[in-house]
Amino acid sequence: MGFVWSRQVVPYVPCNKPPPTIFDIQCHPRADAVCAELDSFFMKHWPFKSQTETNRFFASQTNRWACFAFPMADDDRLLDTVKANTLLFLLDGKSAHVAEDMSVEEGKKLYKRLIPIAMGKTLPNRSDPYEWITYDLFMSMRACDKELADQVLREALSCITAQVDTVRLDCPDMGSLLRQRIKEGGCPFVAACVRYSSRLRVPNETLKSLDSIHESYGKLGIIVNDIYSFDKELHFWKKDHKEGAKLLNIVNTMSIDAGVSYNTAKRILWVLCREWEIDHQAMVAKVLGDKGGADPVVKMYLKGLEYVLGGNEYWSETTERYHFLD
To answer: For the whole prediction, is pTM greater than 0.85?
Structure first.
């Protein structure tokens, strides 16, 4: 009688809890002091439209995001770096603070007004917080380090311009949406902040050679944000969207492209992120291993990008910015 072999089959059980990231998570040691100072600053000066909006902003711990993203920042550069990131959060079209309540044309007018002010070409109206906060911030950063501050400003302007670009409404697949979301989500801006906050002067030709790593870093950051923010975005889209409006979120696109539920799309994206993390570290290792070892500035910069990714995921998991619904 022949031997019959069989194996016990363990059925697949979906798990909505994401596998852990391989990136380190750190927080700047001066986070509490800087967050307290900036919470007070924005409470006093930012034109929140209601007490509810004010409460949501502070409950979201928006200022703390940058303390997780830039744990290597020099102490004397941390305050302006955090303020710059919080300013873009407040102006972001998804922030429920400014541009979300505007039409595309109104958003364009606002940014058109702010751009020459940020560049220092036009003096601000001191009764308009959008103007004088923007002006004072970038003047302070340029006074500290004009070269690196100009890089931050250039990427900030690209970010806010992308947020009101109508091309964002015509992204038919995941690849095109990712490329657009990387621009409007401020990934190059945050990378410039890594360099500014830690005094890292990376030559332009070297930055260009890191394009594949920048793309990988951008994809990872945006997908994590979109996963965590999806339920809130879907809630508001169902509640308030105008006829023909699109839900511009990677989870929605994956759900449509793969023909799966939203929860399944999230699980697929989490696995994709973890696989991309492995590829990202392999690319970094190759860069650092080429020609007998990379410049220590480049090594520190690439580590800084990883801190952004780890810190962004930790903050995104807990912030009320992505988890409150009403």
So the answer is: yes
